[in-house]
Amino acid sequence: MFKNLFKNAITIPNFLTLLRFVFLVVFMVLYIGADNKSQEYTATFFLAIGFLTDFFDGFIARRFNMISDLGKALDPIADKLSHGIIMLCLCTKHKLMIMLVAILVIKEGFMAVMGIRNFKRGIVNSAKWFGKICTAILFVALIVLLVLPLSKAAANTIIIICAIVMMWSLIMYIRFFYLENKEMGNSEK
104 CB contacts (<8 Å, ≥6 apart)? Predict the structure, then answer.
């Protein structure tokens, strides 16, 4: 089971994904320690570099046929960790952000349980189109909240839109795993 996960794991895309974790830690340390907007922008710059690695790891993996099960597992973990850390940093400025953190914990908790369950069955699922849309919207919204001076109403509107998109994505994943489980049950008969 674990043997397949690490098969062909030493690749440029996987290195870029691991590098994203490093930039995320740098962002978090700099943002939490920031005393002014300029320092927050410096922190956000390191976050942006991490986002670029996300783009390039997927592009390189597909273009040069370097897709691996480890990469399929690490990439969404890096995405969700990015979301969580950014949200926690933003909780200091936007009280409603705690709602997004709660939804993220519920959604990703469900995804982790289903991912582990499938992994034990020898299945490694890639992100689905609705999950990718959710991730893209969330990243854009979180960056907007990080860098733009918004009114409380505008910030809360963005947060509520993100909450709706995250709930929609969760419902779509619940449906996906239900249908997948139903199909597997039918094939075992």
Answer: 80, 83, 84, 87, 166
